[in-house]
């Protein structure tokens, strides 16, 4: 790209903000716009000195940049998009820029799957970094070991989170097809993104296309616990290595031990002891994620001892089981929730990490899957793992095309949970949630806040309300 100035429409998306940082690191004059900016990406962009303009407006494109990167959340009707189309200002998609400007010439290591790809990508990047490989990487979140979601280096590997969501308004194929992988980790395959995928078959077709891009010399590292994953990798032209708990897995996990501050396990490679691992994270799904990252590192000749040392020092990702506050004995945890399966994995992990403590689930149905009733029954099953549940109204988008009959029925979810003796309540907004649950919270409670967005500032407002209550009782 010879552009000296670039404007990103939808800059506060995790990948778009990362691309902005990567372009700035290359010396490009970068700016962008969004409808709403919230942490962690808003503060991340601010720390990089990248200007973010709100809301969307034609004036944000003045002066006219050399090129505009159009985020995949941007659709026709957006004033900036309409302006650039009328003016014929050059524009591209985010994945196009990433491949052409950053991945090309590197070993492309793509971590894909419905769940776990952000954490697995972060683990892989940290292992390669710890091993002295100095990888470039792009992650859909802030990796705490780096304090960043990206790095641009001269290392041989580019490690990237491969998103199955569509590319742009003019390219409805999945982003990860632009990354032309040398190696793929496939963590899971489920129906998701109900706004763009017709059904599970359509989702699986996308992942099959990704697997079909891996050259014969490459490798696919695939979870062993899913028939969907098995179908997606069965016609691969490269080596396929399965990982998980199955007795015949190439990377077999055994002897998992969950403790208050750590998790440990043993991995066997092709039937032989490979390594004993330990790290500070909770949850079976994170054991799987780490084992996949270890398998990837071994494929690129990183020693088991080095992998183990790196994992012991791994510090997770922002908004993944992140402890945001501890006030009056109440632990408040932020987790990026987009799907009932992910919610169940999160609550199961918290049950093990905080055994014997009362667990709250505070949910904002915000993702395009959770806003729909397609998984309403599964959502009830997931939330039933909590002791107390509070659910906000379904998040409304200004560009909403969701029909009433397709929308998640929060009242029914609450009624079904109450019928299971799970104390659940529906709340109109964040203020209602805080006013209802703050008086009920007691020392020892664990509150899991589940949303893939800003959730009305609840991450700051709930701790503040607890501190205020504590002051009143002082």
Question: Please, could you describe this protein's structure?
Answer:
With 474 residues, this protein is of the alpha/beta class. The protein folds into three domains: 89 residues, NAD(P)-binding Rossmann-like Domain (Rossmann fold); 208 residues, Mur-like, catalytic domain (UDP-N-acetylmuramoyl-L-alanine:D-glutamate ligase, 3-Layer(aba) Sandwich), CATH 3.40.1190.10; 151 residues, Protein-Tyrosine Phosphatase, Chain A. 32% of the residues lie in helices and 26% in strands. It has a ten-stranded mixed sheet, with helices on both faces. α5 packs across α9 and α8 packs antiparallel against α9. The protein is globular and about 60 Å long.
Keywords:
alpha/beta; UDP-N-acetylmuramoyl-L-alanine:D-glutamate ligase; globular; 3 domains
CATH architecture of the largest domain: 3-Layer(aba) Sandwich
Give the count of helical stretches: 14
CATH class of the largest domain: Alpha Beta
Number of strands: 23
Tally of domains: 3
Largest sheet: 10 strands, mixed
In one word, what is the shape?
Answer: globular
* Largest sheet strand order: 8-7-9-6-12-13-14-15-16-17
Which radius of gyration do the C-alpha atoms yield? 22 Å
Which bin fits the share of residues in helices? 25-40%
Give the averaged pLDDT, no decimals: 93
CATH topology of the largest domain: UDP-N-acetylmuramoyl-L-alanine:D-glutamate ligase
Terminal-residue CA separation: 60 Å
CATH superfamily of the largest domain: Mur-like, catalytic domain
Low-confidence parts: none
Strand content: 25-35%
- What structural class should be given to the helix and strand makeup? alpha/beta
